[in-house]
Amino acid sequence: MSAWLRHHFHSWRGTIARLTATPIGTALNVAVIGAALALPLGAYVLLVNLQTLAGGFSSQAQVSLFLDRSASSDDIRSIEDRLRRESGVAQMRFVPRATALHDLARSANLSGVIGALRENPLPDAIVVTLDGNNAALAEHISQTAGGFAKVTHVQTDSGWMRRLDALIRLGRTVLVLLGVLLSLALIAVTFNTIRLQILTQHDEIEVSRLIGATDAYIHRPFLYLGGMLGLLGGLIALGLVSGGLALMNTDVATLASLYGSQFRLDSLGAPDCGTFLLFSGLLGWLGSYLSVSAHLQSVD
Amino acid sequence: MAASAPIISFREVCKRYPGGYDALSGINFEVDTGELLFVTGHSGAGKSTLLKLVAAIERSSTGTVLVAGQNVSTMQRAARPFLRRNLGLVFQDHKLLYDRSVFDNVMLPLQVIGLTTKDASRRARAALDKVGLLAREKANPMSLSGGEQQRLCIARAVVNRPSILLADEPTASLDLETARSVMEIFRSFNQVGVTVLVATHDLAAISQLQPRLLALSKGRQA
Ligand SMILES: Nc1ncnc2c1ncn2[C@@H]1O[C@H](COP(=O)(O)OP(=O)(O)OP(=O)(O)O)[C@@H](O)[C@H]1O
Ligand SMILES: [Mg+2]
Fold this sequence. Notes:
By secondary structure, chain A is an alpha+beta fold.
């Protein structure tokens, strides 16, 4: 075993000893770090889910053309032909009014009400799916189609798509701010925890320096300690967020079933969890590094 | 001993502490490899300051301090640990760690340089044996007598087999007989080739050694 490896081994043993020497203090520190990390992590998970939800509705804008009752199948074919000549149209689907009524009855649980109707109030429709979710393109198609004969009404869904998009973008900005703020909080918490550790080992550090310990040697056990605190805090945060999601999912399931959806909030995947733990460990490491450096500066 | 290059040399060294007090001024001397030198003087004469300059614990304000060919006055922070690994230091205020055993105190310098536990234990026990403390290896330093604590400090200082041993008031508050026995230990290390600098105001304790003296008075060579 090389001298370097032995140093690391000693440092690790020291770290474990320190973490277990004051279990309550360690637990409280880890809990604080975990809570601080759980907030941005939770916000991130919700945002990812919101994006999935939005994507599931449609990542492609749709334009619906509602037709006059008197439109014949020739009229319909001619409208479809003209639409086909427009660029950016990915797909077209003719929805006969009978189908529309049937769908409505099924998805909104209105069969009782609809069964009581003497005639079908819905018009025939053509649903045009566009390439991508391009609000300008949707605008253009809806203007053009609005001029076609036998088209009484055009409806685009790009408006609410745009609103949702803006909302998600706002959410992302808030998330970044939250993340930065709470990362700083985590660094501050480890900085302080390590500073207290340094105070209790002040004599050992001083003597070690006087008998030839390098700065790296002094740093190492504290870096491990800070990294461990960050990592354990990260695990707590993952636990909190998973627990929170499980709780929320019972309500989400109820809500989703009202919309005839199977939607559930997804937890983070393994790669995301790994990245997150690495990040929290690094933050702890950084807080510790700054703390020991500040101490070494002050005694020099 | 054959004439050899000085291992320590001070040239026009001054040390002014923050606040403007000149603890040392105009110090010039050389110590050859294998020499035994006693730095004497009244309290406040600058003995501790002089030893601290050798170990790069303090930095000279002007002048040059050379130790083993290196200019300590201009030494980079990163190089200091490696200088100190070649020095054995006995501090005026002991600087023993009371949260661990006698044995673990002597192990510390060896852990710092990354020796295996097996080799380190062997060397730590050998050092404790040399100062007559092997039987107390499991004790806490707090439970040792004043003379035993001084000997423990010496064991920790020599366990790295340094080429230079620096001791600051190693016999303070010891009775004459104990003080002489501690000084004998330094002489025995010197006799196996270690360069030894001892700061002391206890002339009685060294009278039997007929040593070379560097006398300081109010920060100047007397
Ligand atoms: N860190 C410091 N800051 C300011 N002045 C200091 C500092 N260390 C020492 N001095 C002053 O420098 C002078 C020399 O101190 P030093 O400790 O070298 O004396 P000494 O010969 O070792 O004395 P003693 O025999 O009491 O240990 C003293 O007047 C002391 O007050
Ligand atoms: Mg002194």
